[in-house]
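Subject: for your reference before the review

Hello V.,

The reviewers asked for a structural picture of the protein, and I figured it would be easier to keep everything in one thread rather than splitting it across files. Below is the amino acid sequence we used in the manuscript, unchanged from the supplementary table.
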Amino acid sequence: MIALISATKDEISSLLNTLTNKQFSNTDSVKFIEGKFLDIDIVVSIPGVGIKRAKNCTNTLIKKYKPQIIISAGFAGALNPKLRLGDVVIPDWVLSLKNADKIYLDNNLPYIGFKFLNGGVLTENSFINVKEKKLDLFVQSGADVVDMETWAIADAARKLDTRVISVRSVSDLTNQHLPKMGQIFNKEAKIDTKKAFGYFKSNPGEIFNFLRFKYVNLRKARNRLNSFLFLLIPVLHKLDN
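And here is what came back from the structure prediction:
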């Protein structure tokens, strides 16, 4: 079985809509969706944002389903100035600066008819919204993109001898200033109305930046990510059978 972990439904919405024979379950407060994607058995979990949630989800998923491989799929911010919006990155490795730990990932893919880039992904436990911080992390880590889950998934998976491939679609550029997303969204990546109202009331200039990010950036990143996953899952299934 192939497993897929994504922090939010929004990131993989097209893929979720194509699943058939869906069955929903809950184990140790982790929600799972089992189904078929083009007659391929797949289990999906959407734990929410952050390292702790991703690690707990991965542990529970592996013990329950024993998947052949886990796909860590979602958006990522560009650290490498050469990356463009919607670029798909299949990292060779993931790094946690806090834990001084680099984990090598599964990335041995044949050509699947969709251009992607290799490189590294840095996992941080907060959204990086300031361009100066992005450039600083690029120098420190050498990673091309930054996310909030891949290291946690890979760390839990290596302890349970399970392969991980990460698929990240670039949702914001290195030179792009963004609002403080932690002041707008909760850990389930849903807008916290009270917090968001207070934030935008104090920072009205961020409203345009937020709307551009939500309705332009994320739309392109989502479309590219889902298009890639539609091609990737059958290839992984074929390689493992």
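For the response letter, the relevant points are probably these. The first helix runs from residue 13 to 18. The chain has a mean pLDDT of 95.

Happy to draft the paragraph if you're swamped.

O.
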